Amino acid sequence: MAKDKTDNETGGGTGGGIQSLDAALRVLMFMASRPGPLSLSELAREVDMPPSKVHRYLASFLHAGLAEQGGRSGKYDLGAGSIRLGLAAIGRHDFVNKPSAHLEELRDATGLTVLLSVWGGGGATVVRWERAASPIVTSMGLGTTLPLLNSSTGRIFLAYAPQATVQARLAEELAQAAQNPAVLGDVEPTRSGVDALIERVRGMGYATVYGDYIPGLVVVAAPILDWQGEAQAAITLIGTNPKVVQDGSDEIGHLLDFCRAHSFASVGSEG
Amino acid sequence: MAKDKTDNETGGGTGGGIQSLDAALRVLMFMASRPGPLSLSELAREVDMPPSKVHRYLASFLHAGLAEQGGRSGKYDLGAGSIRLGLAAIGRHDFVNKPSAHLEELRDATGLTVLLSVWGGGGATVVRWERAASPIVTSMGLGTTLPLLNSSTGRIFLAYAPQATVQARLAEELAQAAQNPAVLGDVEPTRSGVDALIERVRGMGYATVYGDYIPGLVVVAAPILDWQGEAQAAITLIGTNPKVVQDGSDEIGHLLDFCRAHSFASVGSEG
DNA sequence: AAACGTATTGCGTGATACGCAATTATTCTG
DNA sequence: CAGAATAATTGCGTATCACGCAATACGTTT
Predict the structure, then answer these.
(1) Is the pLDDT at A208 greater than 80, yes or no?
(2) A7 CA, D11 C1': Å apart
(3) What pLDDT score does B78 carry?
């Protein structure tokens, strides 16, 4: 009975359920993480798989409509089936639908630009936002993927998302940061530096960043937690006045109130 | 040399690339076609696969974040990874991003509610819409899946989408219609009836429906075609005044102009 | 035209996903 | 609160099928 199930979880920690499916989905999610269409060879190189393998995966994606092959360039890109899937998913997450009105309230209460992001598929994705009247130019569209270490939103997920799901992305960013340490500013690009960061964020319940990711801006983020204490989503405030990110500011108060009010909302429709 | 490759394509016409991946994606897209969370057994029954198989697929989907397991109900639902995927896909389709301003123009020119839909993953999905000032209550959200036979939008895809991709859904709706023929109104729920419908739509270049899907409303739709003459998207006008769907009306003129103007726009970013 | 890079397709085989059944968790019921 | 029934999950052996390799077809560059 003392089955050593541990040897499933060895090493790389890739294992979901079915190996080939995991590999295929990795290709798909990689496509989602890239801005434009990709050729077969690019794709194969980046995900480190033989082209024939990727090609067969793509054939299935094409068939499902999740991917499509653009123009005569032959490059592959996400397709209408992915849109369909995504909109269907959005329609189910209460905190993606409901808060649109509430987000406006928060925007009006703070006078800041408000962002709603979710964690999933190996990245933090901006799902909805309300822009403040102030002349802040955020060149940030829906679907933007935020960095884990370098944005307050990312740090929220770093601290509150299921640890297993952040590892891959974290390793990636640490590797990058090792070559360009200056970017990170207030965090040491090491495991212990990251651990300290996580502790700090958890202690405060929110994360602040002074224009690291977006120069000249101040950003605060806080988590919307589910019943397990894990982040289902994050709310982010973006402004220019440094005092709003000082501990105890009204804006942070509003933010935390909002997040508390929406935490523990179920994902699907529960009875 | 005379390889009988034909026996790949036998019968059901399921074949994309990899069998197991096709099956898995069928499960995923099925989840997208259903409004709420599903239990394992429901899911297994509906897609007609053994529960263990579906369970393993779900494990991979969970790992990729495409699905998640809700609350303590244990039911499965689409996850944040799907949102991530969908938003990434939306960000690439020119005609999903660009027209938002143009859609307003069309709305103002016609005074009607304007819908933008895409075909993919076995269904027609509403991607964007501009509501007219008139007091029309459309309880139709983003991500709504439209019927193929029973909506003008669906009929556009029926006539202009790649035939192979509509077969499955068409068969489904015909089966339903066989039990409830009255619903269809002006179309006979048979193959020949559908063929006649397709001919009619192609001849006109647009499709009209008098309140079949939405009682009391009149609806016109026309396709946005790609370079292959296949429908990449459809534009739909919704109103109450029957004369707008009469052949040669100003509204239909505006609609067709709009669709012509946006046809042949590439999907990805081409050079 | 030749040479290169890229995409696609066959083929045999070893890995692996599948079906079945046992086990565990959860819900219904008397 | 038992006890049963249903649903979810996990093991295991085997037949299947996805993989890697290499040949071919395609398109582009020099």
Answers:
(1) yes
(2) 15
(3) 94
